[in-house]
């Protein structure tokens, strides 16, 4: 069966050509403009000699040019490789080499690292002098075309043919690299059909409307932003307000200016808005907050909805390998706070023990969450060993620990690798973090294990306090001790001004362990 994901843009263009697809700080891009300009990018890439299945790396923040690259690459029958703009030269080189990317698109402020990475990757791949070609998106105040690079505008000089390559539904559309928190990043191959099904099922469950305006601050190079924000908006003809990175003031300004109705984010973003002064901003259009990427504490949901009446936070769960959404709470009436919801249409989810046997429902039966269905990745790019390790008997092993209840709602307890075993007892960091977030002085919290000669591991809490709040180690320990079993509460509390986070705002426990 032939199918190209870029069809979602073409269909929405036919339905509403003059409607804004996205707003950024300095421009608005309509569906018609996006369709035509991405067609120019497609024609230009093919004119450079790229052939069906070739990879193009795109290292851009949330800018309109990201969308033009994405749909242009798909239209040409090529494969998109989204990269984090903050990667350094050596890291960029690794991704370019591993994916075999032929071209890199980057932005002017970060051009030096992009060029260094492209040159290193090109030398190792035997490319001609100058390495892999780099195209730079102009940003005011920066040199648009550093020495040895091309201007992105060159890719817009071709004529749009209107063609969309007749790719197969199971052809790879995107190679999306995992974060690499447990080793070298691996490229998950996501197909045209898989991505289409995710945005279709997610949007229908979510109840997205054509008049919705989504605040797109989640990085589009990440699966949450790409699949559950960008693709969903385009599939259903909505509008996005693009913000390159999360900072409370720009986010609040864009939400007010464009009357945003949907805010998708990770828990740390909800924490920041919860504690921000929003009195000068009209956010009355906001109706839904979609949380994912990490577990959001129930206390944060309660406080956020109290601060913003009329808003409901719905939590879901997914991974790069599942094209984002696997389970979801579909409404305020049906959600269960603390749960990641039920399996979405067409997806099977189970909880299994170490022998891959399905466990019965109930919080006393914690095991690994495994999934299968139309959202399953094709495999890890050029890495059959890692694919075989992760996918067994057709089930993808997520590495997340959880349980199901009698009604089919799933609950994440923690990452399998984050489990702390103290004196032979299992301590799930999320359970301790839930208690920490109810402390009146704590804004952020993360719990990790520390090697202990006597007990094997000890429970350590890292916290950041709310502005103007005060608390000391003994106060926090006593607070937890009163609210949980003796083997669970932290024996050590470390205070930081802010917890380390990754590009999506997810707390990086790996850095806390070093």
Can you offer a commentary on this structure?
It contains 14 helices and 27 strands. By secondary structure, it is of the alpha/beta class. Among the domains are: 7-14 and 27-170, Rossmann fold (3-Layer(aba) Sandwich); 419-513, ANL, C-terminal domain (GMP Synthetase, Chain A, domain 3, 2-Layer Sandwich), CATH 3.30.300.30. The strands form 6 sheets. It has a 9-stranded mixed sheet, with helices on both faces. Strands 4-3-5-6-7 form a 5-stranded parallel sheet, sandwiched between helices. Helix 2 crosses helix 3 and helix 4 crosses helix 5 (111-125). The longest helix is centred in the N-terminal third of the chain and has 17 residues, at 31-47. The chain is globular, with a radius of gyration of 23 Å. It starts with 6 loop residues before the first helix and ends with a helix. The model is unreliable at 125-129 (pLDDT under 50).
Helices, strands, pairings?
Layout: H1 7-15, E1 20-23, E2 28-30, H2 31-47, E3 55-59, H3 64-75, E4 79-82, H4 89-99, E5 103-107, H5 111-125, E6 134-137, E7 150-151, E8 172-177, E9 187-191, H6 192-206, E10 213-216, H7 223-235, E11 239-242, H8 248-257, E12 262-265, H9 267-275, E13 288-291, H10 298-307, E14 312-319, E15 324-328, E16 342-343, E17 347-352, E18 367-373, E19 379-380, H11 384-390, E20 391-392, E21 395-404, E22 410-415, E23 420-422, E24 425-427, H12 429-436, E25 442-452, E26 456-465, H13 473-481, E27 492-495, H14 509-513
Parallel strand pairs: 1-11, 3-4, 3-5, 5-6, 6-7, 10-11, 10-12, 12-13, 13-14, 26-27
Antiparallel strand pairs: 1-2, 8-9, 9-19, 14-15, 15-16, 17-18, 18-21, 20-21, 21-22, 23-24, 25-26
């Amino acid at each position: 069966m032939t199918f190209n994901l870029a069809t979602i843009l073409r269909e929405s263009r036919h339905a509403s050509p003059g409607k804004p697809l996205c707003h950024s700080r300095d421009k608005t891009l309509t569906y018609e403009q996006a369709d035509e300009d991405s067609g120019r990018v497609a024609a230009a890439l093919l004119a450079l000699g790229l052939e069906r299945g070739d990879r193009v790396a795109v290292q851009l923040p949330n800018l309109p040019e990201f969308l033009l690259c994405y749909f242009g690459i798909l239209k040409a029958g090529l494969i998109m490789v989204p990269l984090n703009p903050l990667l350094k030269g050596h890291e960029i080189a690794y991704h370019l080499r591993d994916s075999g990317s032929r071209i890199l698109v980057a932005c002017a402020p970060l051009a030096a690292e992009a060029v260094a990475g492209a040159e290193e990757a090109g030398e190792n791949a035997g490319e001609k002098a100058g390495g892999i070609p780099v195209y730079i998106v102009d940003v005011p105040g920066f040199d648009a075309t550093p020495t040895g690079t091309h201007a992105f505008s060159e890719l817009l000089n071709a004529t749009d043919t209107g063609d969309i390559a007749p790719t197969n539904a199971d052809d790879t559309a995107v190679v999306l690299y995992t974060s690499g928190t447990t080793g070298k990043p691996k490229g998950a191959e996501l197909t045209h059909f898989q991505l289409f099904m995710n945005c279709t099922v997610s949007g229908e469950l979510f109840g997205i409307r054509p008049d919705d305006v989504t605040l797109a601050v989640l990085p589009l190079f990440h699966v949450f932003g790409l699949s559950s924000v960008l693709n969903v908006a385009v599939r259903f003809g909505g509008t996005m307000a693009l913000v390159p990175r999360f900072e409370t003031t720009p986010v609040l300004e864009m939400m007010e200016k464009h009357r945003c109705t949907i805010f998708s984010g990770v828990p740390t973003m909800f924490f920041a808005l919860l504690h921000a002064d929003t009195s000068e901003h009209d956010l009355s259009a906001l109706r839904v907050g979609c949380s994912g990427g990490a577990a959001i504490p129930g206390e944060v949901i309660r406080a956020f909805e109290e601060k913003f009446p009329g808003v409901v936070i719905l939590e879901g769960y997914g991974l790069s390998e599942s094209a984002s959404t696997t389970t979801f709470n579909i409404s305020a009436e049906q959600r269960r706070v603390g749960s990641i919801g039920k399996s979405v249409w067409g997806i099977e989810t189970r909880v299994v023990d170490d022998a891959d046997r399905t466990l019965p429902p109930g919080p006393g039966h914690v095991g690994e969450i495994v999934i299968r269905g139309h959202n399953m990745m094709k495999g890890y790019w050029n890495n059959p060993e890692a694919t075989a390790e992760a996918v067994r008997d057709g089930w993808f092993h997520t590495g997340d620990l959880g349980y199901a209840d009698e009604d089919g709602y799933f609950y994440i307890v923690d990452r399998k690798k984050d489990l702390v075993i103290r004196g032979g007892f299992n301590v799930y960091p999320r359970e301790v973090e839930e208690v920490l977030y109810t402390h009146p002085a704590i804004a952020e919290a993360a719990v990790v294990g520390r090697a202990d000669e006597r007990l094997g591991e000890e429970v350590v809490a890292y916290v950041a306090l709310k502005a103007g709040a005060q608390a000391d180690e003994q106060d926090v320990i006593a607070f937890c001790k009163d609210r949980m079993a003796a083997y669970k509460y932290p024996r050590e509390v470390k205070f930081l001004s802010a917890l380390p986070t990754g590009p999506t705002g997810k707390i990086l426990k790996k850095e806390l362990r070093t």
